[in-house]
Amino acid sequence: MIIKDSFSKFSNISMLYGCIAFFTNEKSEIAHLKKYLNSLDYKNLTVLLKNKNKKKGLLSFDLNPNQKIILIPLKKNQKSNEIEKSGAKLTDFLKSEGAEEVHVVSDTISLNLKPDAIYEFLHGMRLKSYSFDRYKSKKETKILKVNISSLKKFDKRIYDKFKAIELGVNYTKDLVSEPGNILHPDEYAKRLTQLKKIGLKVSVYDEKHLKKMGCNALVGVGQGSIRGSYLVTLEWRGKKSDSKPLAFVGKGVCFDTGGISLKPARFMEDMTYDMAGSAVVVGLMKNLALRKSKVNAVGVVGLVENMPGGNAQRPGDIVKSYSGKTIEVLNTDAEGRLVLADAITFTEKKFKPNLIVDLATLTGAIVVALGSEYAGLFSNNDNLSKQLHEAGEKVEEKAWRLPLHSNYDKLMDSKNADMQNINYVGGAGSTTAAQFLQRFILNKTPWAHLDIAGMAFSKYAGALNSSGATGYGVRLLNKFIEDNYE
Known about the structure:
Aminopeptidase; Leucine Aminopeptidase, subunit E, domain 1; 19 strands
């Protein structure tokens, strides 16, 4: 569903047709609607309301053959994420009704909330409306006209801020939803260069350049593919000062067969989303540029395809990373950490950032531990961890901190190299992967790792997203920046 919204004032609801939405208090009381409805319609609505189960939340009534009244209950001082969910519920309801237009009487939201809560409500509606049907010959996406009526004052600044977030989230979803034969590393890098048009500085380091730099951990992952391997940086300078940037690093394995350590065939088609960490970074950077964020930030993504082939990396190979540390590759399906290893050290050395947050669909173990409710959060800095956790709670993109410890770190030591890429002892798979990544923070930069393997893609619809790519992480990091660095 595509939402086309507009803002207007009107004087007579009786002149409107179709769905008309009003906000009420949590008890679904309607005394405040007298000024919007004629006496007969108000009386009929009162009678209909008596026979409704008010515990169901959103209520709808066919007031007459031409008008469907929708009542949206909101609690006093309801939190932003709950307001957004109410918007998403309205989108779902309108989809089920096959509605083509809805009039939302925004004045009534101020019964319990600040008037600009209407923008949060609309934000939830639009996030929920996302669909990906690019490759269907018969398009199923319908257009829903949303007319925000009786708005006393349109605030373009707030509207544009939410629109930028949505465009960033939806760009992330688009990237994750693309099939592997379309969005391979060559095409991905090409698409990222197009973001120069919105003010991002984009630099592409191809395979030849990466080899000269010594990024052998990243290059090794992609050497079995006919596609190239890349490191791409996206810089946003929103501050006039030359202050250190915030850095965000993403794993971009465009398709992951596991390499020589081949994955089982069942569900391998889902491995198109193994680049979701990079997509979050890209969506975030797009959002920051579009809303002209007052922050300096850099996004770094490592783009590869992990394929078996005559030149593919073998289990037992030893590679020298960009940091100078050597890695024994015991399992080629533990490839994401090899990509991130070079990307993290490169980011720290080149940009000398204030902090680094990396995101990756890194381990199946995190799904066992946390399911699809929380991302795994690992960090060397308590304050950074706290900031990310709190931001996630506010937008309901939750992250749960898990431990790092020297005893886990020892499990990644190798007899033949500085370290190995898997823990052969077993257990603590997500933690030992994070311990591996921490070794590539060389200068004690505050760092956090978000393992989003359980969050980036869902077979089922969530509160604010349809099934498929969720866009998890963009809103979390945007809130993290808003609250702490703008």
